[in-house]
Amino acid sequence: MGRPDICKIGGVGTVPVDRVETGVLKPGKVVTFAPVSVTTEVKSVEMHHEALSEAVPGDSVGFNVKNISVKDVRCGNVTGDSKNDPPMEAAGFVAQVIIRNRPGQVSAG
Questions:
Q1: Is 29 contained in some domain?
Q2: Which of 9, 33, 37, 38 might form a disulfide with 77, Cβ 3.0–4.6 angstroms?
C-alpha cells in the first residue's frame, strides 16, 4: 500500500486509509509500516462503511489496526506484508524526473 492517511475513530481506534496497490489486505494479516518499522495486526477492513473479507489491488479502504496510536505512523508511510517482503527504508535510489510547466527556473537546493 502507498502512503496512508491516518484517522482516529472513537470506539474503533486507529484507522489508516489507503489504496491497495498490490497483494491482498485482510483481517488477521500482520503488516509493517515503513520507514518507522511499526508492525501490527489488521483487525478489520472496510470500504464505503462495509466490512470486507479482503481488499484487492485498486480498492480504497480503511483498516483498523491493533495497539497502534495515530502518533506511531504518519501519512507518507508505506504499509506491507510483514511476512512476505516487508517494506523497509531504502538506502538510496536513482530517479529520472520530468518537470513540466514550472514557472521560473529550477535550481539546486
A1: yes
A2: 33
- Which grid coordinates are listed for 32? 509493517
Residues of the chain short of pLDDT 70, as ranges, are 1-4
Structural domain that includes position 30: 5-81
Residue 89 lies in a domain: no
The CA-based dihedral angle spanning residues 43, 65, 8, 4, taken in that order and rounded to the nearest 10 degrees: -120
**In 13-46, which positions are buried (b, 16+ CB within 10 angstroms) versus exposed (e)?**
bbbbebebeebebeeebebbbbeeebebebbbbb
Q: What is the pLDDT of residue 74?
A: 86
CATH code, domain with 16: 2.40.30.10
Domain total for the chain? 1
